[in-house]
Amino acid sequence: MTWHFQVNASAETLDGATRTVGSYGEDAGAMRELSMPGYVFMHADVTDPDGYEKFKSLASAAIADHGGRYLVRGGAMQPLEGQWRSRVVLVEFPTYAAALAFYDSDAYQQARQVRLRSSTASVLAMDGVSDQG
User: What is this structure's pTM?
Assistant: First the structure.
């Protein structure tokens, strides 16, 4: 059995298309695409709990619309190094492009306006790693 591995150029799109990072297979005809998840990470201090509840509701709908799911949403935490805010949220999306599309969506931008009035936060999008080998 001969394995072939091919690295393709990456292409990031905002339309939710799969971002190709490489492919593999037993032969050239069996090549398969690998994709990596994308994440949105936020840490925040809530300044208006009622407003933040509205943000959570609006953001949850936008996350679901883009195939996202919460991995961390509040809960117990213990800072080990550096400066952290009191609330941490980590959301996984099927691809990095989907994470960016979520953030840029009209639905999230509406939620963001509520968040800006009810918390102080830092937010970033990041690439994950492939679950293939």
Answer: 0.73
